[in-house]
Amino acid sequence: MKNYLLNFKKYIFLLKELIKRDFKVKYKRSFLGVIWSILYPLLMMSVMAIVFSNMFKFKMEGVNFLVYLMSGLIIFNFFSDATNNTLTAITGNGSLINKVYIPKYIFPLAKVLFALVNFSFTLIPFFLIVFLTGNEIEKTKCFINIYYLLLPYIFICVFMFTLGISYILSTVTVFLRDMIYIWGICLTILNYFTPIFYSIDILPENVHTIFKFNPLYVYINGIREIVLFSNPITSTYLIAMFLYGFITLIIGLFVFKKKQDKFVYYI
Q: Global pTM?
């Protein structure tokens, strides 16, 4: 662990450059540039809100559906973007890895941090929606409460969980390039398995437990309890959030470290 920390400090400049490179590539020749990081989730949320609240009539009594939807989208989109980007974190930097020594764990980390920066931009439209929408008469208005202080903790847990999955995916993709397509299918399944635009209350009670084992549901539900309902989160729930993230990160690092010496033979 000490060596990892020393290497991280030594190569932090490279990490910053890799993140900057991803920004330049993503927004190259884009007229609005970084503004898309704010505008895109806002437009997507608007489209989905119209579809599910009007066309499919998805409404929840006493719940601000826009906030409910957005709180799920921002977490799932961060997870989806980060993991998709890290699929080629190693294979896409093969020429650099084969020429000079660079700690390989830097590359997946840079991809997840880049997604985290984009995620931070999406929080702007999210909180605008939280504070500017809703109706007090219908009891759908959201208010700032003391439990907002727990949101950074939840975001850190989401980051750890996502980084752990990213290390596993970037490792598997080196040996199985089909993982790029397989993961796309997995994300589609996970999208429906995670209550983003619907409530698990519409499902039979015997399947609720299965959903609650989905870490993304745990994180999203925690955010909703705070933002939508101003409810405290139990210590057990907070510990579960941390364990999901920490254990996944440890497993991801273990898998990555065990296989990283073989990367040069496959990239």
A: 0.89
